[in-house]
């Protein structure tokens, strides 16, 4: 029986994607592990590997198609002895509203991104999470009466494949509890005036309509949700950088033969990672009805790219040297700008840094990226008059920092302790090497 190939979910936030390129054509023989296609997610372009073997019988979704929903049929694979006549009537899925609408809307993308994804019937769910399985594995499981939720997948990203279900034995499926009567439906997230209202407002002015890509839709939805649902509060401190700049200059001279050049941002990453160890109660995230407190400092750093941003995560940052953090950050930033990061490289972390100092911004307030509990907004260092310890007026290089904090996880005093620890680390940079 022909095997349907479904649009995969290649990132945690992916609900639809663009089938950028096919690496196989109809009639080609496909083996497990072969690269079949390139798919653009909301964050990156990723390769899609085959998990079954056979002959490519029919390509349903042509390359270049946008707005292909997760679990839509994109192609059909034939087994030995089957022909294209066995495929039957399988047509391309109808284009999504986002792909066909003449203009982008302010409300629809946010509501679509915020709404939970309802798996297609071919993708069962367990505890609210989609179970990934090949069509052939699902068919065998159905024939044998197997519960896919009880089977561990050995395919890519934990996908259940043919071999996983062939020798499995049937077990009674758990009975899902009945839905509570009168449960309130989740309200759609408000996202400003509708498109037709905005278009009417500016009907007499020349403008260009710019369609939203997947990344911009995701940014709009996630940050709207964050600002509406996370109780932000803000703490501000000025940091004197003169000792750090002098120490950095000395280190860079010593590291020059190795081709290493440390940036101020490298010191900021290290200072934040150590501060999360010094104030461990703040090294946590919000998890719905609880918080998760971490032992290691996994620090995300915002990287601006064309049309959006990434927040790659430097894991175990408190354990790494400044030169190691510098090299890793440069690599992550380069691949982020090329949209070549894998999902595990930009998902996670408990704390984030957004540095706009290189753009000359004195100070700003950053929006928390859930489920993080805090984000540090970093401004430019500038020469300013200050009153010294002896009471005399002097000049120092001062950098403004603002810590945005989720009050559900971190209270005011705890947030103050965290920001003070960051400040102390930056103003005493040699202690970060101990």
Overall average pLDDT: 82
Instruction: Please tell me how large the radius of gyration is.
Output: 26 Å
Q: Please report the number of helical segments.
A: 11
- State the low-pLDDT regions, or none: 95-125, 172-190
What report would you give on this structure?
This protein is of the alpha+beta class. It is built from 11 helices and 20 strands. A 6-stranded mixed β-sheet has the order 11-20-19-18-14-17, covered by helices on one side. A hairpin with a 4-residue loop joins strand 4 and strand 5. Helix 2 packs across helix 6, helix 8 crosses helix 9 and helix 8 crosses helix 11. The longest helix is centred in the middle third of the chain and has 16 residues. The termini are far apart. About 12% of the residues have low confidence.
Summary keywords:
434 residues; alpha+beta; 6-stranded mixed beta sheet; 20 strands
Question: What layout of secondary structure does this protein have?
Answer:
Layout: E1 3-6, E2 16-22, E3 29-30, E4 35-40, E5 45-49, E6 54-59, E7 65-69, E8 73-78, H1 97-100, H2 108-114, E9 125-126, E10 129-130, H3 135-144, H4 162-166, H5 195-201, H6 214-229, E11 232-240, H7 242-255, H8 264-278, E12 284-286, E13 291-293, E14 299-301, E15 303-305, E16 308-310, E17 313-314, H9 322-337, H10 343-346, E18 351-355, E19 374-387, E20 393-406, H11 412-427
Parallel strand pairs: 14-18, 18-19
Antiparallel strand pairs: 1-8, 2-4, 2-7, 3-6, 4-5, 6-8, 9-10, 11-20, 12-13, 14-17, 15-16, 19-20
Helix pairs in contact: 2-6, 8-9, 8-11
């Amino acid at each position: 029986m022909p095997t349907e190939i479904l649009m995969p979910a290649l990132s945690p936030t992916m609900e639809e994607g663009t089938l950028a390129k096919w690496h196989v054509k109809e009639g080609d023989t496909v083996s497990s592990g072969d690269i079949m296609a390139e798919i653009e997610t909301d964050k990156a372009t990723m390769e899609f590997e085959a998990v079954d073997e056979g002959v490519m019988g029919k390509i349903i979704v042509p390359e270049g198609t946008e707005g292909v929903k997760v679990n839509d049929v994109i192609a059909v694979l034939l087994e030995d002895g089957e022909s294209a006549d066995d495929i039957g009537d399988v047509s391309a899925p109808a284009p999504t509203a986002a792909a066909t609408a003449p203009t982008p809307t302010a409300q629809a993308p946010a509501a679509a991104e915020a709404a939970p994804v309802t798996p297609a019937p071919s993708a069962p769910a367990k505890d609210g999470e989609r179970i990934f399985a090949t069509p052939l594995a699902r068919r065998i499981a159905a024939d044998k009466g197997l519960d896919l939720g009880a089977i561990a997948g050995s395919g890519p990203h934990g996908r259940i494949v043919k071999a996983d279900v062939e020798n499995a034995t049937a077990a009674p499926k758990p009975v899902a509890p009945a839905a509570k009567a009168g449960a309130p439906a989740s309200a759609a997230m408000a996202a400003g005036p509708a498109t037709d209202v905005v278009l009417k407002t500016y009907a007499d002015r020349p403008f260009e309509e710019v369609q939203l890509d997947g990344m911009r839709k995701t940014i709009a939805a996630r940050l709207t949700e964050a600002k509406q649902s996370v109780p932000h509060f803000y703490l501000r401190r000025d940091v004197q950088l003169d000792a750090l700049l002098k120490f950095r200059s000395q280190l860079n001279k010593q590291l020059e033969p190795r081709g290493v050049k440390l940036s101020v941002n490298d010191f900021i990453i290290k200072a934040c990672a150590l501060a999360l160890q010094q104030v461990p109660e703040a090294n946590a995230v919000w998890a719905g009805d609880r918080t998760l407190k971490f032992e290691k400092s996994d620090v995300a750093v915002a990287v601006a790219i064309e049309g959006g941003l990434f927040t790659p995560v430097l894991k175990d940052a408190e354990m790494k040297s400044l030169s190691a953090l510098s090299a890793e950050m440069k690599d992550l930033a380069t691949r982020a700008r090329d949209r070549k990061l894998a999902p595990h490289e930009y998902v996670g972390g408990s704390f984030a840094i957004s540095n706009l100092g290189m753009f000359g911004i004195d100070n700003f307030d950053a929006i928390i990226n859930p489920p993080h509990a805090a984000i540090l907004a970093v401004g430019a260092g500038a020469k300013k008059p200050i009153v010294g310890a002896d009471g005399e007026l002097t000049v120092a290089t001062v950098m403004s920092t603002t810590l945005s904090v989720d009050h559900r996880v971190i209270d005011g005093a705890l947030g103050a302790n965290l920001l003070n620890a960051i400040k102390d680390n930056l103003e005493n940079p040699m202690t970060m090497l101990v």
